[in-house]
Write a structure and sequence with these properties.
The complex is a heterodimer. Chain A is of the alpha+beta class. Chain A has helices at 43-52, 58-69, 75-87, and strands at 13-15, 20-24, 29-34, 37-41, 91-93. In chain A, the strands form two sheets. In chain A, strands 2-3-4 form a three-stranded antiparallel sheet. Chain A has a two-stranded antiparallel sheet with strand order 1-5. The chains are: A alpha+beta, B alpha/beta.
Chain lengths: 95, 380
């Protein structure tokens, strides 16, 4: 079995292209849709996915979250969630 | 679809998160475990393109998110691409559940363009001979070839294996094939015994030993392949001691619309006699889901009898499957006889024991899915 690399703040991660992440009005929540599955995300999880996936590094996304929520030292919390999301296959490290 | 054997409970806030539309009961294959009604050919009044579109719009208004295009064989509907396009526009995550027959590169590209997100392709055996025997048609090579095209077109794909005594010993070969095809998911769907599968149950039910071996092979492959291939193993509920949390509860998150517009809490529910299921031609989907007596019949737990009524697990498994309770005990509000606490569990144990004592595969013929059943000479 391949050894999973831990995610680091310098990584750029992206959403698994088979997953669709969006706001769902009737649920009043963000959802992840994928083959045969639905995940309803809480506000924190959705905010992290929004800020930390795409083109900038996790560190840059974390800074943005810190500014938006006026909280310092979010790094550990963000990394912890992203590692769970990575293990579940929701996101992948961009090469 | 929510895995029938899954214990996972998903709170849909009372919305039909999963909408399955069975576009037609027609299918070129003759699978002897088909989940369609045994008298499927009596239902000829399929919804029109416009009627299906109206179902899709109403479903989204009710909060449906995942949409399955199913059948029968949905590829037989020439308006499939048009319906997928409408569904995508409305914001569904669209899944096509197909045998692959009727699918070709041209239609695949059209479906991709229409916004189709995912394809679930069924495969019944890892070799041509057994596959033909099980589905009644020589389509193995086509299925493999179309699986490769599906991947080439960039669709995520679930390879769905309906598991019976006949193909369970090919578990490892299926996993190898799935890895070779590059699919993301393989689903070993041990058969659930309703409709055609029920007619053939004695011949299809695997033995305990077969099942244990298959599950061990699945677990070993999960270790070996990690995230490259996700393997779902839907347990055959007969061999379990606890009933499945069927459909996550009646009228909880799942809504099926049959080809003739009949709305059902699951694709098998019309086999329960005495429930008047509403039809989208006569009622709005909102009334059907929220108000109709059919969808409220087994919601909550006030309908439950003992041992469910006082059981600490009643909110976990909802008493199991209503269809199974009806088929095996004659009363849909009884505890699913799969449950070890059910006074009827011996019915299931007898069936499993019977499976151990049978002769080899093929010593008795399978009743293949065909029109005109039941014939007068047949006894259900």
């Amino acid at each position: 079995m391949e050894i999973e690399r831990r995610i680091s703040p310098d990584d750029v991660v992206e959403l698994n292209p088979n997953y669709h992440f969006r706001w769902e009005e009737p649920q009043q929540a963000h959802v992840l849709l994928y083959p045969e599955g639905i995940v309803k995300l809480n506000q924190t999880a959705a905010a992290i996915l929004e800020a930390c996936t795409g083109s900038s590094s996790i560190a840059a996304g974390t800074e943005e979250l810190s500014r938006r929520y006026r909280r310092r030292d979010l790094s550990a919390e963000v990394l912890k969630f992203l590692e769970v999301a990575h293990a579940k296959g929701w996101i992948r490290v961009k090469s | 679809m929510p895995k029938a054997g899954s214990g996972l409970s998903l709170d849909g806030l009372g919305m039909p998160l999963w909408l399955v539309i069975e576009l037609t009961y027609k299918c070129p294959l003759k699978c002897p475990w088909c989940s369609n009604p045994v008298d499927f050919d009596r239902y000829r009044n399929e919804l029109t393109t416009q009627e299906w579109k109206s179902v899709l719009r109403e479903g989204r208004r009710l909060g449906s998110l995942q949409l399955g295009f199913s059948g029968g064989e949905p590829m037989l509907r020439r308006d499939l691409e048009e319906l997928v396009e409408e569904a995508d526009r409305l914001g569904y995550y669209t899944n096509l559940i197909t045998s692959g027959v009727g699918l070709n590169p041209k239609r695949l590209r059209a479906l991709k363009k229409a916004g189709l997100k995912q394809i679930q392709l069924s495969l019944q055996a890892c070799d041509q001979e057994l596959n033909e025997k099980l589905v009644g048609l020589d389509v193995f090579d086509h299925k493999i070839s179309i699986a490769r095209t599906i991947k080439a077109e960039g669709f995520p794909m679930v390879l769905n294996v309906p598991v019976s005594r006949y193909n369970i010993d090919q578990t490892e070969a299926f996993i190898e094939l799935a890895a070779d095809l590059g699919v993301e998911y393989v689903e070993f769907a041990n058969l659930q015994y309703y409709n055609w599968a029920l007619l053939n149950r004695a011949e299809l039910l695997p033995t305990r030993e077969q099942l244990a071996r298959s599950e061990a092979q699945v677990n070993a492959a999960r270790e070996r392949l990690g995230k490259k291939l996700t393997i779902y193993f839907v347990v055959p509920d007969y061999h379990d001691q606890r009933p499945k949390a069927c459909m996550n509860g009646w009228g909880s998150i799942h809504l099926t619309i049959a080809p003739d517009g009949t709305a059902l809490p699951c694709q098998e529910a019309r086999l329960i006699k005495g429930i008047d299921f509403p039809n989208v031609r006569e009622h709005g989907l909102d009334w059907i889901w929220n108000t109709s007596p059919g969808f409220n019949q087994f919601r909550g737990d006030t309908w439950m009898k003992e041992p469910c009524r006082s059981c600490s697990e009643r909110e976990k498994d909802f008493g199991g499957c209503r269809c199974q309770a009806f088929l095996l005990t004659g009363d849909a509000s009884n505890t699913d006889p799969v449950c070890a606490k059910s006074p009827n569990r011996h019915l299931i144990d007898d069936l499993i024991s019977g499976a151990e004592k049978r002769e080899s595969c093929g010593s008795k013929p399978l009743i293949m899915r065909e029109g005109g059943y039941p014939r007068r000479t047949d006894v259900i």
